[in-house]
Amino acid sequence: MKTILTASALGLLTGAAMAQDAAKTLPEDVGKVAPALEAYSDNTLFGKVWTDETMSPRDRALVTFAALMTRQETGALADHVALALDAGVTAAEISETITHLAFYTGWGNATAAATAAAPVFEARGITAEDLPAVDPELLGYDEEAEANRQDFVQGTYGGVSQGVVDDTEQLLFLDLWRRPALAPRDRSLATVAALIAAGQAEQMTFHLNRAMDNGLTQDEAGAMLSHLAYYAGWPKVFSAMPVAKDVFEKRAE
Length: 253
Fold this sequence. Notes:
Low-confidence stretches: 1-12
Number of strands: 0
Radius of gyration: 19 Å
Structural class: mainly alpha
CATH superfamily of the largest domain: AhpD-like
Mean pLDDT: 93
Strand content: under 5%
CATH architecture of the largest domain: Up-down Bundle
């Protein structure tokens, strides 16, 4: 597989430099129309949020991409694909995030994201050789936990839509979640970010717990909420806050 050298891989874009690069995603027209918004962006979003070391620049870039894809903000996606690559997210990981979030945000969002990413991939010389295999060797999984989860879903919803129940087991949890091109922690991170951006806080309990089981810390989860307040809006984040609070408290018991 060909190696794609990014600014991050070359050690050129870390810390404050990453925040400066993130600031370049703000269109120049913002200052001409809403100078106060430009000031908030420069002073707080890029000057404070992106430089907060509680969550790595790479994770911030991945979370932002997931949120923008979920919201189908296609005008901003290409810049954020480039930003994610410079932050150390690989082309394979971006590709796999798009595939993964098709199941959580809808096929239209995924195809729009792929269309936005295509020119960036082409400009950087990223080819099919750099992308995940269609049928890779899948990661292992906890068979007992999955059987218990499936029994619950079958017993609760089998009489409502057996098709959804079957595809949830066979496509999502026995296939998609086991694909190796995106680490379980990153897959969970993107999923939780998408749920927050979509305003689907009621789905967060399972996935935030899974993210933390996969290695996401409580501090990182809190930083993700703070970060997404700017990209998904305060109301969606405040809808997610009670769920996160409940997860944190129960895990501390």
